[in-house]
UniProtKB/TrEMBL annotation:
Keywords carried by this UniProt record: NADP, Oxidoreductase
Protein name: Aldo-keto reductase
Gene Ontology MF terms: oxidoreductase activity
Pfam families: Aldo_ket_red (PF00248)
Taxonomic lineage: Eukaryota, Fungi, Dikarya, Ascomycota, Pezizomycotina
Family, similarity comment: Belongs to the aldo/keto reductase family.
Length: 228
């Protein structure tokens, strides 16, 4: 660091300096809007009430998780009024109040109807033999593989496993590396601080063209499943 840079840093308020040091997320421009969003974006489906679904985080776990995400630089939060029948929105507001998060420093996103899950509901974050081992996949009638038995996607998942083993990455990093070249920022429903750190650790990871072709050539067109 140059003397000039060090001098400028010395004039930065201590709270801002700590915030800069803790930030692990990157920021990207959203299309042509001029709006910059964090990468990743925090998905609010996991936030709300376990009475809605047992894998949803209640207030006691959700609020600290939102604070942790914000401290790491994830300042774009996605929600919907259907999530926990509105409790997802409520808890985001409570987190802002409890932790004194300025509204102007958050980008809140919402939607109607169904959300698209970039990691395929967990399908691209774990090996096929691990399907059914999470609370969410047990509760959901068809597990993590949406509305079919997953047989038409097994080859893709196998290739994700293959690339992950060769690279020494988690499977989620392979999926995120592929996604980050195609969308502004993936929306991820975090269940713990560890999952946040895992997603942030994918920053800067890039697949080769050969690896991308290897992943994509197994794809077969699928029917639209309730969303466009």
């Amino acid at each position: 660091m140059s003397k000039l840079s060090a001098a400028k840093l010395a004039t930065v308020p201590e709270t801002l300096h700590r915030s800069i040091q803790a930030t692990s997320a990157e920021f990207r421009q959203l299309g042509r809007s001029g709006l910059r969003v964090s990468n990743p974006i925090l998905g609010g489906l996991q936030i709300g009430s376990s009475q809605w679904f047992p894998w949803v985080l209640d207030k006691e776990k959700a609020l600290p998780l939102l604070k942790y995400a914000y401290d790491k630089g994830i300042n774009t939060w996605d929600t919907a009024n259907i999530y926990s029948n509105g409790q997802s929105e409520v808890l985001m507001g409570k987190a802002m109040r409890k932790y004194n998060i300025p509204r102007r420093k958050l980008t809140l996103m919402t939607k109607c109807y169904r959300v698209w899950a970039p990691l395929a509901g967990g399908q691209l974050a774990r090996a096929p033999e691990q399907n059914g081992r999470t609370l969410r996949s047990i509760v959901n009638k068809n597990g993590a593989f949406y509305h079919n038995d997953g047989s038409d996607s097994e080859e893709i998942v196998r290739r994700v496993c293959e690339v992950a083993r060769r690279r020494g990455w988690p499977m989620s990093h392979v999926a995120l590396a592929w996604l980050n070249r195609r969308v502004t920022a993936p929306i991820i429903g975090f269940s713990s601080a560890e999952r946040i750190d895992e997603a942030l650790a994918a920053r800067g990871k890039v697949l080769t063209e050969e690896e991308e072709r290897h992943l994509e050539e197994a794809y077969r067109p699928q029917d639209i499943l309730g969303h466009a």
